[in-house]
Amino acid sequence: MTEPRIFNVYCDESCHLENDGIAAMAWGAVYCQESETRAIAEAIRALKAQHGLSASFEAKWTKISPAKVGFYLALLDLFLNDDRLRFRGLVVPDKTQLNHAQFEQTHDEWYYKMYFTMLRPIFCAPHRYRIYLDVKDTRGGPKTRQLHDVLANALYDFDRESLERVQQVRSHESELLQITDILIGALTYANRGLTTSPAKAAMLARLRERLGQNALTRTSSFSAIKFNMLVWRGQGATE
Description:
The chain is α/β, with parallel strands linked by helices and 239 residues long. It contains 6 helices and 6 strands; from the N terminus they run ββααβαβαβααβ.
């Protein structure tokens, strides 16, 4: 019988608002065993120190610049080389094509469905999961509780035995959440077809070199464990 383990799952999203004028949107999660999180966080802080950054420096996709691209590439390599860390992502290439009325749902209701679609392949009995979300706005508390309800109900986990918690954390206090932010940033940048930043282009080139040329813009194969993503185009869509 498999011994139950606890996994920490660090989630974030990008361009998720319905009318923000940006077509592509993404969800993502970096996850690992709870017992490994401290050692991984310490390794990331050590990497920051090696590059002359303070331990409290918050790594973010929006902060990637030519001056710091060496650090960000090293952080990307840390993720890619560490077998304890895995990533699951979901991209919607063009949310302007969504038709919520056709399916009698609101954008928020669809948002929670997509969160479950993104996370579902991570969950595996008899293990237990603790989900951490980046603090976004004042609506975060109710949305966090709603997400916990949606996920638990979808898994028939009514006693919260598998999904132990869903809670907010601040990204500047979580090195693993910072990696999630960077990987989601890469997904949205690639799926928007942007080429405005040589430093960010270098990040995409490193991911494609290690994961495959289409890794950021096509649904992963079932066997892709380290970096697995779904490109979601809705009912009747084709790859």
